[in-house]
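User: Sequence in, structure out. Go.
Assistant: Echoing your sequence, followed by the structure tokens.
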Amino acid sequence: MSSFLVGLFIGITTGRIENDNPWRFLITVGFCGGFSTFSTFSAETFEFFRNGLFLYAGINIAANLIICLLMIGIGIWLGKLF
């Protein structure tokens, strides 16, 4: 969800707010980053590895990467429609 929100915000603000605006960073990195932390993803993946569930760890890594990139892309696309 946070990846989608980041993409949506980037899409809405592209061309309207300069790229180095502190508010843009606060919302994308600070606010949206609070919803979804890399440490949670890392801890889950680490537990899979620790328990010998290498396939699950690989699926978790691939799924998180693909879904997050997809959600950012969809968010940017929708944001540009506004």
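User: And one key feature?
Assistant: The chain has a mean pLDDT of 81.
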